[in-house]
Amino acid sequence: MKKITQSIKMNPAILAVSLCALIVGWLIFLTPIHGYSDNGDFQYLMATNDLYGLPHAKAGYVVQHYGLMKYYNPLHLNHLTTQSAVIQIAVGLNRLLYSQTIFDVRFLGAVHYVLYLGGVAVLVKGLIGNENRLRNYLMTVAVVIFVADSSFTLYFNSFYPQALAFILLLYLVGFALLIIRYKTVNNWLTVGFYVSAILLLMVHESTSLLIIGIVIISVGILLLPSRQWIHGSAAVVTCLLLFTCWVSANNITREVRAVNKYQAVTQGRLLATSHPESIAATSHIDEQFSLMKGRSYYPAAYAPLEPEGHYIQENFSQHYDLPWLLLEYTEHPHQFSLLLDKSAKNMMVLRPKLTGTREKQAGGKPFQKTRYFSLFSYIAGTYYPKTYGFNCLLAFAIMVIYCGGLIRESSKQNQAVKSHFWLVLGLLSVVVLVPPVVIVLYGTANFVIHMLPVAVCLSLSSFILLSDVVQHRLWRNRDVT
Amino acid sequence: MLRKPYFWGFLILLILVVGFGKLAIHAEAAGSRSVMLVYDSKNIAHHGDLELDRCQRLLTSLGLPVKTVQLNQYQAADLQNGRYRGVITLINWEQSKNRNRAFEHDRRVFDGPKLHIGPGLQADERQELGGKFKTLVHQQLTSHQGRVSQPLSTNQPILVRDQQSDSTSSVGWLSSQNHPIKKYSYGVKNGNTRFLPELGSDGLSIALAGQLIAKLFKVTVHNQLPLLTITGITPYTKLEDLSRLVNQLATQGFPFALSIVSVERNTDLKAFHRYTKVLRKAEEAGGVIFLRPSTETGTQRLNEAELRSVFQTELASLSADRVLPVGISAPGYWNRSNRRQRAVLNSASHVLLLPDQPQRLEEIPVEPEPMITNENRFKTGIVGVPLKAIETVSWQNELKFVQPTALLVPMPTNRDGIDRLIQQLHGSNIRWLDPVKNHLKTSIKAGSVLFDYRSGQYFFNREPVTDLDADVENLANGDSQAEPTTWMNRVIQWQSQALLWLFAGIGLILAGLLVLGWRIYRSKFIHSRDIKER
Question: For B283, which of A71, A91, A389, B335 is 20 to 30 Å away at the CA?
Fold first, then answer.
């Protein structure tokens, strides 16, 4: 067996990249293309990027071609995020190579694809290293099963922010692992880490919540002995990260703010209780608004009254704020725990609801989901325990293991476990702390979308644990010597 | 030879039978034949879509089925004698000079009733109408009928027949502020051809149009009392205000109807029962309820089966709380789509058609309307006219509506608004339709459920409902019961909880062991090392 691996002469990173390239390329480039269809979120994002939906597009199908605006667009780049930058690159390529009037979504897929393959390379290199050992190849295969899962890669052919959130998380963790792995100082890696952290924070207002994890990981990197030069600038770097987080969290339109505020109550506070009328007791909201339980701001087809309308804004949305919501949850911890369990239930359901993954074809029904390469999401979605308490316990257990490792290694000069401790702590703090914040800020609306970074963080921390176990960093002396 | 007279007798008999048969078919067809309404453009920028909608609703309320065709979509030879009951040409956008030769030819040949609304009269129409026409620009005009008058709210140039003729060839007249003595005819009639200068949003214009159209199509009508209808009542309406309004209307002797929206979910909540309680109060006070389907929002539209199921769910939850609607109210466009007609509107005998929301040019409709639509007629269609539209009418109580009409008042948003409304109603002196005294009879059939209303008496599946409040009170106060959890669910819940405790226990034990191990390690090696070093 060893001979075979020796004879391949292909290090794990190249193997992983070429496997991912094949698996994902087939899915997103060959017609009929695959992706996730619009659930209503695309329109504004497309408009700010000079794109528009062509009239024949139908709900529940992936659309390959979009219209490309030719004349003055008042909304042009009105809302600048990392995602807009990436879409602009794709639009530029499209104009250069394909057409001035029609946008082929595969250009966006291609930009995502290239970025993604880079991310995979960085991650695998950081996680597994370059040695051609059998166990490294097995690890590589496991990582490929995770990163090439179609639940993630289908995002590439769509305008959802999750595509970039996923890709940049791969970079972030990959760079952190690489910095820890190399004993010599390589400043480019550090720069890479912070650039990907800032870009990740800027993807979407919900990814700004990842600041918790990023700051902790950053502490781990700044504490490395070889990084003494950075110590002076640690405060600057942290401030920069916090500032980016603040910018990203406030980089939303008034409408999105209204949506979040409305759904935080209707799909949050009201949803957890069987007596939603009790909100009238602590606020100036009329008891009748308890009938909004479970409603979304953009109802799919019909509603007694449009939430955007003047009446609801004046009599409902203007009568509460975040402190009230926090107070409500602290007074009703049981309801909050119900919502947390709901978040855990949705965490490993990686595919957004109400979307199809296929292009329209003869005989194809809308909202169909492909099963292509989805072993990881299937197993995680089916067998992973669905309570928030379990996530906390798991995080605790992993941290106990790392504490053990930390204590063992503290007398030695090996810093890898110590840095991994901070890295895993950062990732797990996202797993534990982000769901409550999401519930308070957004309610249970769009759970799948808000929880995707959490699921990725959890999976990545388990892979780090796995690689540390396989490479005997935690229990035995490393047998590198 | 003897046979010959028999033969002739038989032949005559045969011809008579066949002839009568044909006549009977013909007569039946006249009732169900629709009126063709041809419009040039919706002209959304000037809200011409609302004029079109008004025209359609008016025709529906007169019991005329309508086929609406956009001028460019008209197929040559479609308009044939006997196929349509009449033809109406509606010009919304004269400047566009939109013409269709085939239509103009077919209309000229057509010998049924013809009506032209708006400018853009063609030569043949002018000839048929007779007299001279003139466009009035920048003038404040007032329409009159008898003592009733109302300033026209339109500021568009308006085409009128130059002189006023006697009442046999005109309906209503116009006077201009600039030349108070000069009078123009409003509706013009000549033989089978009619003309209306506009179909504006003003109350008197609608009343005159109704009279003109009824006569043109020989619809047997009599003067109708308007129904006072409060619109925009939703489950989120402030219930104190609603019950105050209902009280005021009942005690001051105004019969009324409510156009309500309901919810199809969350009907087990207390708030829903509070809502239905106020609605029951309205029923007991003599008010009738028209159920309005939910507002359509977002980017998707329900198909027929889904619409029907939502509608029936709403009806069922309302009727469980003894809120028994007498009819359906819906915006005009609901009667322009076959799916919505079949799913919702057709189930009721009384359909109140509310005005459409104005479209906006920059907004792409979610579901583009087809160029040719068929508007249903109902046992009774009621055209909804905002009460605001008759505010400027003098002698409001003499305003004559020949079609069933509802005067719409949006639900006031505060107490002052309610008081103002009551004062306004006192001031107007309009005689309102009283569902009890005027013997209103309605029915709704949805699925296997039948709601009837006869002069104040409600029937549910033909059983009279004697006490509306019976065995509803306890239902409204009782808490909703939690769904009984199934055996399987309980096991799964228990199992996940148990797993949690198990892991927590193991974690604690592990942590304890870790500390213990660390201590032993320290005491065995580090201490001994220290001792050795000493």
Answer: B335
